[in-house]
Amino acid sequence: MKTIFRIGLIMQLGLLVMIAGCAPEAFVLTAEDCYEDETFVEEDQYCYLTCELEGTCAEEPGLLTFFGDFLSGLGDIVFGIPEDANVLVTYSLQNDRPVNPVEGEPFTDEEADILEDTASHEAMWQEFANLVPAENRRQIAEYGIFTDGVDNTMAYVEPIPGNETQWKIVMDAVDAKNKKEQRYTLIHEFGHVLTLNNNQVPFDVEAYQDDLAFEEAAEACPRFFTGEGCANQSSYINAFFNAFWDDIYDELPQDQDPDAIYDFYLQYEDQFVTDYAATNPGEDIAESWTHFVINERPSGNSIADQKVRFFYDYPELVSLRDQIRARLYSGSRRD
Ligand SMILES: [Zn+2]
Fold first, then answer.
1. Distance 154 CA to ligand 1 centre (A)
2. Which of 29, 150, 160, 279 could, after both became Cys, cross-link 283 (CB 3.0–4.6 A)?
3. What sign for the dihedral angle of Cα 271, 273, 277, 281?
């Protein structure tokens, strides 16, 4: 093992010279940077928790302590797709790296500064890559950056029309500076990709882009229609909808007026893990997923607790939870 590490170090030194100036050094780790409970993975140049590599993180004491207070101190978090987002730059993702930037037009000095700061673009993508395992982030083909100032929308994801198996993630560069909120946000956004991707919900590009086609497609769908398409029978979101939304969906304000949704939330407060979760079933499953990742398994009888326990019925999601928790813990102690 030691020999492998040493070869790795030499290779990394060479690589560091090559990428100096275009990638933040903090993310290029060497074996010597690893904590005692971590193992260096040459291919990723990253220290992973050994328990993640061995699949035994569920009872790791340091990890449990870390998550004990993760949710405290989080600000108001919003994720909806803003109607007028000025995307400053869009990257393609190739071999897991953001490449071929296509620049938009900055309208303010702040936007111009963000556009110029390419090292932070790289770092923001790396934050996502450090959190979500490689095989689970392959569906993301584009990565963009925008800002609407502090808070408001912190990030959003959407399918890419014309490339229905792929998604785009767009992050707010200003909000990304709050690491805790950013990580919560990225788990939430990944929750959308996990529950709305083409294998779960076949993407209906016409309905996604056209209001009339949307109404027709929603009407014709015998299961839950998410906005992206008609959910497959066995999809997570269809099961989630049938279990938790079937009887209250008609009461959800269809115009998505925030005040009306807040009233709807107050009426069914014990059904939701956050007020934002009441926005619609898609946001509810993303928020419940995030709480499933961050919290211990709840034992209460509330519907909100049942929604978090919903994910434990899927072994692949329990395994994904363990991996993301290990990565979040591991990444957070390097801040
Ligand atoms: Zn969302």
1. 10
2. 279
3. negative
